[in-house]
């Protein structure tokens, strides 16, 4: 895995091709045509007012939005990109402590008055997002209007996810945690297909590559997934849900609560 | 007639409030006493009051379907119980249990929400504290995954010791095993190991911190990470900079 820094945001054709990709979205997934479900929950007038401050950006796998301890210059509202928040110990990535997709905002610390990111924010699934400067975001928060209320609710959702992940890490085996993680990624990317190495998955889960390898092998044999050369395809998501620990359902309930 | 609590109260958040904000809340603050094991909030329970511990401290627990428990975090006089209330939620999904008996200040949910909605110092401090809590819980997630029972016990002992006044902690192995989400045997083994290193003494259910400085050296880095976050909040509160930090540049 080669995480690379993206020093300057690149607004681009982030939303082009969105219509095409949506038509491939599995029907049971909660993807909004506007991309970010958080932003889509704003009243139309509010969204229009904010729109000039929101710039679309294309994110690639491995992009590092913040390093642990970085000052937050921009916040991001993912559309179909997925960001993993990774704790780092002694400069090395250890465990994923949160996953953010179209239900949330990357840089939620800003909402709580902290202008730096305690975790590394890494793009784990390529896609698009809307970005906003931290100054604009802070101004919005100060207004205590609709976006503020949505960020309050998202903070609660995020705290809940962090709690569930903490328990999951304590009690659940690598195979059920992997299933949970794949399902969470599927929900947020809107796709059954993910590009991932086993090393990467092991890092996210704080496990060993061998453990991931075994778990992937078992899922393949059971026809739940297909995995070849870094490309993973979910074939049977109901079966994957059965293979997952209970944490997936709990996290999903939170995720769905922005409708 | 109820006597208005006088500051300093011994809770960082309340003590850091500007006088005007404190005056508004003071008439709604009630001192309460808690004993070990008392349940403040049940999982899924409605938040009727928020609590600011002074000499007590609380364990936030998550209970799984099969009954196993894991501790999410500890809240003592550096914090407040019921942060979910300030995030548009009326219920909390963690169970909050008194782990160290002592006192706290109780504030009715409605009064807390009203003050929070003013968008002033109270709001800033509570949001800042929410960040501390998230840091604590996510660090626990990391610790749970990567560190040995011994290190985790070490960390938990230090965090508990930070929030109590005594070097002696009234704990059973059973209790600790619930907090750490490990089997009792694991706790016995880990405690024995820490005792052998001369860091604690463990006799008949009482753990005594014997060598705090060496315990701090031995603990995993997770302890410092959370402490740093709390220290940042505390220094902001003490210097009254919370508002300044939140203002537009």
Commentary on this structure:
- The complex is a heterodimer of chains A (259) and B (249).
- Chain A is of the alpha+beta class and 259 residues long.
- Chain A folds into two domains: 4-15 and 26-168, Sandwich (Jelly Rolls); 172-256, Winged helix-like DNA-binding domain superfamily/Winged helix DNA-binding domain (Arc Repressor Mutant, subunit A, Orthogonal Bundle).
- Chain A contains ten helices and eleven strands.
- Chain A has helices at 18-23, 37-40, 44-50, 134-143, 146-171, 174-189, 198-205, 209-221, 237-243, 247-256, and strands at 4-5, 55-59, 63-66, 74-78, 82-89, 92-100, 120-125, 127-133, 193-195, 225-228, 231-234.
- Chain A has a five-stranded mixed beta sheet with strand order 1-3-7-5-6.
- In chain A, helix 6 (174-189) packs antiparallel against helix 9 (237-243) and helix 7 packs across helix 8 (209-221).
- Chain A is globular.
- With 249 residues, chain B is an alpha+beta fold.
- Chain B has two domains: 12-144 and 223-246, Jelly Rolls; 148-219, Arc Repressor Mutant, subunit A (Orthogonal Bundle).
- Chain B is 46% helix and 22% strand.
- Chain B has helices at 12-16, 19-26, 109-117, 121-146, 149-163, 173-180, 184-196, 212-218, 222-239, 242-246, and strands at residues 29-34, 39-41, 45-46, 49-53, 57-63, 69-75, 91-92, 95-100, 102-108, 168-170, 200-203, 206-209.
- A four-stranded antiparallel beta sheet of chain B has the order 2-8-5-6.
- In chain B, a hairpin with a 5-residue loop joins strand 5 (57-63) and strand 6.
- In chain B, helix 6 packs across helix 7.
- Chain B is globular.
- The model of chain B is unreliable at 241-249 (pLDDT under 50).
- Classes of the chains: A alpha+beta (259), B alpha+beta (249).
- The interface between A and B is large, with 42 and 41 residues.
């Amino acid at each position: 895995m080669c995480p690379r820094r993206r020093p300057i945001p690149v607004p681009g054709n982030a939303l082009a091709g969105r219509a095409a990709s949506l038509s491939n979205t599995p029907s049971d997934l909660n993807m909004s045509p506007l991309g970010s479900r958080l932003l889509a929950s704003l009243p139309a007038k509010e969204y229009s007012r904010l729109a000039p401050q929101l710039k679309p950006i294309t994110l690639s796998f491995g992009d590092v939005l913040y390093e642990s301890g970085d000052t937050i210059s921009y916040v991001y509202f993912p559309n179909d990109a997925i960001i993993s928040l990774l704790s780092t110990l002694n400069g090395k990535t250890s465990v994923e402590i949160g996953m953010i997709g179209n239900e949330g905002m990357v840089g939620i610390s800003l909402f709580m008055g902290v202008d730096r990111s305690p975790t590394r924010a890494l793009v784990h699934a390529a896609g698009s997002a809307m970005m906003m400067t931290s100054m604009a975001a802070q101004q919005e928060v100060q207004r205590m209007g609709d976006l503020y209320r949505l960020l309050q609710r998202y903070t609660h959702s995020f705290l809940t996810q962090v709690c569930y992940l903490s328990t999951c890490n304590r009690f659940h085996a690598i195979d059920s945690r992997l299933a949970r993680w794949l399902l969470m990624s599927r929900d947020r990317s809107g796709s059954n297909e993910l590009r991932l190495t086993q090393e990467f998955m092991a890092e996210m889960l704080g496990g060993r590559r061998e453990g991931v390898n075994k778990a992937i092998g078992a899922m393949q044999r059971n026809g739940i997934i297909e995995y070849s050369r870094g490309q993973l395809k979910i074939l049977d998501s109901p079966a994957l849900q059965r293979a997952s620990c209970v944490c997936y359902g709990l996290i999903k309930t939170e995720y769905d609560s922005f409708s | 007639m109820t006597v208005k609590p006088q500051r300093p109260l011994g809770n960082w958040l309340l003590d850091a409030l500007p006088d005007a904000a404190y005056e508004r809340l003071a008439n709604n603050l009630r001192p309460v006493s808690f004993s070990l094991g008392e349940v403040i909030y049940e999982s899924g329970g409605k938040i009727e009051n928020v609590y600011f511990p002074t000499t007590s401290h609380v364990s936030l627990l998550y209970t799984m379907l099969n009954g196993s428990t894991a501790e999410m975090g500890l809240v003592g006089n550096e914090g407040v119980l019921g942060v979910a209330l300030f995030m548009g939620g009326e219920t909390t999904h963690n169970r909050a249990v008194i782990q160290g008996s002592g006192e706290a200040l109780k504030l009715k949910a409605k009064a807390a929400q009203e003050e929070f909605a003013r968008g002033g110092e109270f709001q800033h401090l509570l949001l800042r504290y929410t960040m501390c809590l998230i840091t604590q819980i996510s660090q626990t997630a990391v610790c749970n995954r990567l560190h040995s029972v011994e290190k985790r016990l070490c960390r938990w002992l230090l965090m508990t010791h930070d929030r109590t006044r005594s070097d002696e902690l009234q704990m059973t192995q059973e209790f600790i095993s619930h907090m750490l989400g490990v089997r009792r045997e694991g706790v016995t083994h880990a405690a024995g190991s820490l005792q052998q290193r001369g860091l604690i003494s463990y006799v008949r259910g009482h753990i005594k911190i014997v060598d705090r400085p060496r315990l701090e050296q031995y603990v995993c880095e997770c302890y410092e990470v959370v402490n740093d976050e709390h220290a940042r909040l505390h220094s902001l509160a003490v210097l009254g900079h919370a508002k300044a930090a939140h203002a537009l540049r």
